[in-house]
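Tokens as discussed.
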């Protein structure tokens, strides 16, 4: 069974479309577990209505923690829900009808190759849309210069912009056992997806499907969204001219390294960042 884990917070505007897209999935071997993180709008009422109409598919979790923040809320769900496979689900996107089927199929292929006791995760591309679902970017990876191949090199993934988003991830039970206990990164609202990718790249198998399986909605209240105006090369160019910016990144690197449950080489992180700075500066100057 596949457990879909959804954390909600004041999501009444788009939550119905998201749940409807899950109910329309071609793969029906799933259960949706939802934890509301202290909403003050109509989100809880909407969730109760869907759970009442779909008691065999949708389960609402209740606890005393109230507002935990997105990352901790998602990982709390992972801790308390028992399943064979897990997916994270945002409250405001729309899943393509074959999202579960495609992701699960490839994950099973990897399990046949590496064994079911191997921690394995899979992620996909995203189609970026606005609040009305008008397509802004058919491929986040291509349109926003994100390279999914970086997951094959831990230090490239650590020091570059990520192509792996939690709302496209699926992983198996063996992966869950590695991912808990969860440690929240300082100063981040989400970061549960970063935690998943770092650990699976280092300790398991983490691969991707080069196609979009989700309409990733951009609007004014996203916890984390795509930043189209940001250019990583421009950022590196600024760092080259202002070393204090690089120092800030190194401090952030160090804080994250201390949290990880395995050794991360500071010298390798520094080398990768230095190499990227030089490469970007040369390209910018041409």
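Sequence:
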């Amino acid at each position: 069974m596949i457990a879909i884990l959804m954390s909600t917070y004041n999501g009444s505007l788009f939550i119905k479309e998201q749940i409807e897209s899950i109910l329309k999935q071609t793969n029906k071997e799933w259960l949706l577990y939802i934890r509301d993180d202290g909403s003050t709008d109509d989100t809880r009422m909407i969730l109760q209505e869907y759970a009442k109409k779909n008691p065999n598919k949708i389960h609402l979790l209740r606890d005393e923690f109230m507002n935990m923040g997105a990352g901790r809320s998602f990982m709390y769900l992972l801790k308390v829900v028992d399943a064979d496979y897990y997916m994270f689900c945002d409250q405001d996107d729309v899943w393509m009808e074959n999202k579960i089927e495609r992701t699960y199929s490839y994950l099973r292929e990897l399990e046949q190759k590496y064994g079911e006791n191997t921690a394995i995760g899979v992620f996909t591309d995203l189609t970026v849309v606005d609040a009305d679902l008008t397509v802004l970017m058919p491929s986040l990876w291509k349109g926003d210069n994100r390279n999914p191949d970086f997951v094959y090199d831990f230090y490239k993934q650590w020091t570059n912009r990520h192509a792996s988003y939690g709302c496209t991830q699926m992983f198996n039970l063996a992966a869950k056992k590695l991912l808990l206990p969860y440690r929240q990164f300082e100063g981040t609202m989400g970061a549960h997806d970063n935690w998943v990718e770092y650990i699976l790249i280092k300790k398991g198998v983490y691969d991707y499907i080069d196609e979009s399986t989700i309409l990733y909605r951009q609007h004014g209240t996203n916890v984390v969204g795509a930043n189209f105006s940001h250019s990583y090369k421009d950022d590196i160019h600024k760092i080259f001219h202002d070393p204090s910016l690089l120092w800030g990144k190194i401090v952030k690197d160090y804080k994250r390294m201390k949290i990880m449950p395995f050794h991360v080489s500071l010298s390798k992180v520094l080398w990768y960042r230095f190499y990227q700075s030089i490469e970007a500066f040369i390209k910018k100057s041409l």
